[in-house]
Amino acid sequence: SDLHLHFQESITLNSIAHDLGYTIEYCSRVLKKATGGNFRTYLNTLRLKKAQELEADNPQGLTQSEILYKCGFSSPATYFRAKKTLLNGKK
Q1: Most CB within 10 Å of its CB: which of 7, 23, 25, 57?
Q2: What is the value of pTM for the model shown?
Q3: Mind giving me the DSSP string for the chain?
């Protein structure tokens, strides 16, 4: 499972571990070592980055809500919570 290709989907650390054939604990440890953060932080960082790219270059004229859903957020509240958490530097 490549997060950069599937970040828009409803993806979990459990599903990634299962697909790779490793335990959740092992995958969590490897991800934390590689990124310095946990799975949710990393996934939301990818989603936020893509949302910002779409907001900046939006030839289809998507609304903010459409962009957020397209980037894998389940609701605007989830987006704003993720953005606030990342801006505050929480892991």
Answers
A1: 7
A2: 0.78
A3: --HHHHTTS---HHHHHHHHT--HHHHHHHHHHHHSS-HHHHHHHHHHHHHHHHHHS-TT---HHHHHHHTT-SSHHHHHHHHHHHHTT--
